[in-house]
Each structure stands twice: as C-alpha cells, then as structure tokens.
C-alpha cells in the first residue's frame, strides 16, 4: 500500500514509520508515496527529503481551510496514496479532504480519544498524574479525534516525575505502536470499532 505521511513538526513518528517500511514490520506491506507538510520549513520534511523520500508542501498560513484542503487533496492525489497517515499533522481536516480519502485516513493521538481530544494530551496526563495513559490509532472523521478506534496501547506512567519523562515514555510507545497497527490494518487483521 502507498502511504502519504502528513506532518507539521519534528516528524519523529514519520521517522519511525519510514524505518519500519525500510527494515521492519511494514517492509513489503507499505511504501512511502510522499511526505507532506503544511509548513514548508519544518524539520520533519527536511529529514524526509534527506532520507530520499518524495516530499511536498503547501503553506497553510493565511489560507482558508476549504480552499487549502482542496489544494492539498489535488497535490496528494498526484502521488496516488492508498492511505493518508497523519503524524503530527496539526490541522483539522475539512469535509472535502475526508471525503476524498474516505475510510483511508489514519491518525495517532497520544491519549485515549474517548477521554481526551485535541492538543496537549501529554500535559493532560501529567497534570492529572495519571498512572497510565493510552496511545490511540484511529480513523479520521470530521470531528477532532473522534473517529473509529483501530487500536490502543497503554503507556505506564507510574514513577514518571516530569512532563518530559511522560512524553519520552509516550513517544517510545507511539513509535512502535503506529507501525505495528498499520501493519495489522494492511494485513486486514483489525476489527474497526463503530
Ligand atoms: C505525537 O505526539 C503525535 O501523537 C501527535 O503529535 C505528535 C507528533 O510528534 N499527534 P512527531 O512530529 O511525530 O515527533
């Protein structure tokens, strides 16, 4: 399957996914069609280009959401992706975008999406001193972190004594779990929640 990986920042999940495509659980199952960003200068996009992946960007700043998303859909379609894999893509997708890739847009959220949506999920876990949080991989619908859950993985936060430590533990789980979940999805091993 051809993956379009979308990001807006440092791209640690993109790096983990592309590594798994080259030499891990996604090898032979997935290929990287394009790495796309709505912010042309972010580190994640530069890292993808240095690894030799096709990259594309359209600057979202100052653009109206529907018009911007129409441009993004057209750009992504040039790369014929089977799945749109959001990896720190800091945009709410418009209905046009969702419809263009219906049922084929995947996101990772660093909390249980039934309990926490939107930004600052690790801050939320830290401030509430949760003993455990959950990483959620889900299909994207028109809401913010509301789509059907594909899989969740626990993060043990007992003894974590700072926000950076919470993030470190969470990201370590994210990096393994996103690729594992995509592999199971591509092998049609996942039952999708309704
Ligand atoms: C991750 O925590 C991801 O779960 C969230 O945004 C962050 C992106 O980090 N959606 P990175 O750019 O992949 O390092």
UniProtKB/TrEMBL annotation:
It is an enzyme of class 2 (transferase). N(1)-(5-phospho-beta-D-ribosyl)glycinamide binds at residues 11-13. Its EC number is 2.1.2.2. (6R)-10-formyltetrahydrofolate binds at residues 65, 90-93, 107. Catalyzes the transfer of a formyl group from 10-formyltetrahydrofolate to 5-phospho-ribosyl-glycinamide (GAR), producing 5-phospho-ribosyl-N-formylglycinamide (FGAR) and tetrahydrofolate. Belongs to the GART family. This is Phosphoribosylglycinamide formyltransferase. It comes from Hymenobacter gummosus.
């Amino acid at each position: 399957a051809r993956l379009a990986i979308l990001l807006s920042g440092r791209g640690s999940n993109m790096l983990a996914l592309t590594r798994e495509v080259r030499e891990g659980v996604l090898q032979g199952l997935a290929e990287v069609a394009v790495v796309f960003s709505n912010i042309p200068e972010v580190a994640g996009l530069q890292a993808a280009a240095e690894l030799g992946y096709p990259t594309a960007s359209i600057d979202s700043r100052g653009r109206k959401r529907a018009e911007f998303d129409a441009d993004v859909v057209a750009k992504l379609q040039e790369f014929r992706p089977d799945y749109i894999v959001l990896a720190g893509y800091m945009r709410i997708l418009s209905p046009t975008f969702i419809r263009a890739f219906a049922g084929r847009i995947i996101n990772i959220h660093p909390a249980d999406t039934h309990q926490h949506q939107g930004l600052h999920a690790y801050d939320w876990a830290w401030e509430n001193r949760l003993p455990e949080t959950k990483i959620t991989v889900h299909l994207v619908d028109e809401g913010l972190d509301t789509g059907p859950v594909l899989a969740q993985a626990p993060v043990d936060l007992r003894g974590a004594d700072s926000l950076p430590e919470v993030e470190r533990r969470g990201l370590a789980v994210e990096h393994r779990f996103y690729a594992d979940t995509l592999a199971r999805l591509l092998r049609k091993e996942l039952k999708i929640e309704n």
